[in-house]
Input
Amino acid sequence: MPKILITDVVLRDAHQSLLATRMRTEDMLPICPKLDAIGYWSLECWGGATFDACIRFLKEDPWERLRKLRKALPNTRLQMLLRGQNLLGYRHYSDDVVRAFVHRAAANGIDVFRIFDALNDLRNLRTAIEATKEAGKHAQGTICYTVSPVHTIDSFVKMGKELVAMGCDSIAIKDMAGLLTPFVTADLVKALKDSVDLPLHLHSHSTSGLAEMCHLKAIENGCDAIDTAISSLAGGTSHPPTESMVAALRGTEYDTGLDLAAIQEIGMYFYQVRKKYHQFESEYTGVDTRVQVNQVPGGMISNLANQLREQNALDRINEVLTEIPEVRKDLGYPPLVTPTSQIVGTQAVFNVLTEKRYQTITNEVKLYLQGRYGAAPGPVNPTLQQQAIGNEEPIECRPADLLRPELARLTKEIEALATCEEDVLTYAMFPEIGRTFLEQRAAGTLVPEPLEPPPAPTGEPANSVP
Amino acid sequence: MPKILITDVVLRDAHQSLLATRMRTEDMLPICPKLDAIGYWSLECWGGATFDACIRFLKEDPWERLRKLRKALPNTRLQMLLRGQNLLGYRHYSDDVVRAFVHRAAANGIDVFRIFDALNDLRNLRTAIEATKEAGKHAQGTICYTVSPVHTIDSFVKMGKELVAMGCDSIAIKDMAGLLTPFVTADLVKALKDSVDLPLHLHSHSTSGLAEMCHLKAIENGCDAIDTAISSLAGGTSHPPTESMVAALRGTEYDTGLDLAAIQEIGMYFYQVRKKYHQFESEYTGVDTRVQVNQVPGGMISNLANQLREQNALDRINEVLTEIPEVRKDLGYPPLVTPTSQIVGTQAVFNVLTEKRYQTITNEVKLYLQGRYGAAPGPVNPTLQQQAIGNEEPIECRPADLLRPELARLTKEIEALATCEEDVLTYAMFPEIGRTFLEQRAAGTLVPEPLEPPPAPTGEPANSVP
Ligand SMILES: [Co+2]
Ligand SMILES: [Co+2]
Output
């Protein structure tokens, strides 16, 4: 009897974290028979940024990818990451679009919907959870982990209970930034397992080199399932290696029951695949513990560095890193994840570059302070709110309550370019690049971005001193 | 009060594991003030393969390196790795040479002598431990961890007790191959701490991605000190990142008390230094769990691959990997570490390439079966022993008991090329390349092996999908 369940994220989060989400379907399908034979609890293979990357860069139909994966992985649950009411886009959608999206994802092959909201505002999960249940699929409610004065173990347990009440089938802790430490994980998992009678999954990024230890402490404290990535796409901003976690638990009461040698073969495969995408590798792929000091996620730091470089202001990065916690505090301590990481980061850049804090307030910060993303986790700075939105009353309701049904309109707008509801949803997610994609598909002119040839080998493999 | 002590191995094992031991003193000294300020229990910075690499490749005087490090690190214990009666060479030395070596190492700056024997034959540690104590320094007795029918927790505890009786100041578990798993570590550490009243240090390589978890379980079970490496030279065949372990323990009863931000600055430094040695990087620097399946250490696999490639027989490597456990069993299950890894590996290659097992028996295997390296951990194959050494009686005594004092002879042989006892010891370690080194030094013709220029950057840093 396997005790600990494994979700392998090699087909989604691993290449999203390490290779800018560029892995192509053609590199997934050949290994699917071996992946399917392992006996994973699930394979995360869709959602997150993969939909965007398919349309924008790979010129692949993401729905087609899903159908192919479904066919190639008949024995394994397929899992996707869904940004609640944002789905896979960057705004809130009306409920009819959310429902349609979940139903089409289910019909095309998704079994497990991991659903989160950047603010942990559970109202933004409600429709997606309901739709998942309607479709007869597994709804995994997600707690975004972060560190702040308003995020306590009690607050996370409260969320867990609410997710139970909303009908979730399991709960995931999502540590997108690698902020968890082993002993905090132990306390958090224990508290959740003591109060919430649902299977608990842990998703922790290896960024700061703590994720394996967090997994281990989670398991010892009752966590049921962990997310890992095949070793050749593990570590760094990705996840703990599947092989290492399987080896760590072998022969213990937590044994995963998975065949280590079989997983190693898959590791060899992705080792070769990774080379094909070398142009998307970060310069540094090792451990980066800075998030443990300044709470700014590693991915956010590199985005900021790019943003500052474009404005010839890379030398201001340390000021921006110092400013980010201030902006985050003013906004009531949102977890830093898409889209809040961009909202906070861009405002921090403005605050530094304009020399006067909030001289310029971005549109997104205004929307945030209007309550248009949902409720902030903690109280926002009232002075800033007044300055940003004047005497306008912030909304108290669920943001999507203000949205009228829009599926019909979207269907009408995209017209014959959409050959099925899935196409309408593609257009809904990405009005510009989605339309372009559908046009090019119709015209037969889809061309994926080119890949650079493999680099010449540099140096000989090291010979050990005898 | 810091609870867990840290030994940072960045100046020795980290670059020995990742960069073929090639880091030069000039790249160590600039960062020494920062390293010295951290408050490490010790810095491992000498011994192992560094002596050999200095003489053979870097054309640096290893004694001079030690004196420079001592001066640059006035506040931190300096630690070396010593192969017991083998010292830093590849044969057994007479006791007078061992004593002289330890005394000169102590006089030049070593505070902590970590002393091991490849067979765990403690008689091969005795003289080095005694000499360390005579010199007023810290003698750390080492248990080489391995997996076999004759290596049990009880057998390791027995060793631990013997090391106490021999006067050691602390005990180290040396997991050179990354064979330890977290729950085995827990049991082993607990058993040792229950029976042995000495500080316990854990040295586990990250090869299979389990070392952080092993460290954590060791700490929870009473381990006093762990070995780590600055993150930019951590992971892979090296060690858990110092920063990650410090972050993992912060704010807990096991807090190291070290300043994470200060260590991060050192990480940035070595990140740059590492680039200089890119030609010595392994092609693959990630996690490799194969040792957890076949018990063959990763470093040994790459050496074998090189050996087979030279004989145009790389396609036989899987046969060799299958043969290694057989040879190891025939030899009474030696741990696989210098020199036993070479002894077992080379014999396994012969067994495969000559098509008949033990048709050729290497000289080293003959010496091993004569007892010339010490006592095998378990019974050796009597048929093989008979075939290898005929009716000759294997020795029962400590191998060095058969060696006459040799320091005077060595001093005479090297004559005026040696300007001090340290030079004689250099010659003693490496009769050929040591002599050449001393000759070239006298002639002023020492030239370090050249370093390749840094490679052209490949591709842009990855931009995350928004
Ligand atoms: Co993730
Ligand atoms: Co080592």
In short: The pocket of cobalt (II) ion (ligand 2) is lined by residues B 13, 176, 203, 205 (CB under 6 Å).
